[in-house]
Amino acid sequence: PPYNPQFNPQQQQQQQPYNPQFNPQQQQQPYNPQFNPQQQQTPYPQQPPYNPQQQQPGPPPPSLQLASNVNPEVASWFAVVDENRDGAITVSELQSALINDDGRSFELATCQMLVNMFDSDRSGTIDVREFEAIFNFVRHWRAVFVDFDASRSRQLTPMELGNALNRVHSCAFSPRFIDQAARRFARPPAMEVGLDSFISLNALIASAAHRYRTEGRGAPYEDFLLNCIMRA
Ligand SMILES: [Ca+2]
Ligand SMILES: [Ca+2]
Hints:
Blueprint: H1 9-15, H2 24-28, H3 62-68, H4 72-81, H5 91-97, H6 108-118, H7 128-148, H8 158-168, H9 175-185, H10 195-215, H11 221-231
This protein binds calcium ion (CA) (2 copies).
């Protein structure tokens, strides 16, 4: 047969594997044009309009519940908060995402408390279902907080705090109790408490009130609560 210089199987085999569109290095970086941590730094409990009249949105439509069983809004926030995208939210990832209305990050202690409260499977981290519970919990307390922030300072003064605690716990706490509770959490020199402290304080009071039933042994109620709050 005549020699055909264009045919060389060896050459073609060598050339085939090269595909300029395939580059493992490039593809290892998960590219998601919609995810930009810098842009999405708006914390999830912070809703742009500071409006106490605003009611919490209702549950998602049944079709969406059937689709994923997790509120899509919650699922998209989970993706933002889970910075390293390993499917689990750590205390520090939670702290980066939770911002008080005055711009401060949540106290680490509050974030740790939230993880402890909602880590149902005791994995030490928060999965998407556990996160849904935290999301709803924080949103609920933020609505209460905003309702009682009469001065719109985005913090609660001792008087606002007293009104809130009395309503939430169906009590008539003494001014001394409110003052000491506020001092425990307020950032000096101001005596006002932010959303993170408000959430912590309410959880501590609820837990102490629960303990009082079995451990109170006739002790003055407020003293027992204060003792628990101060030691927490
Ligand atoms: Ca993570
Ligand atoms: Ca967990």
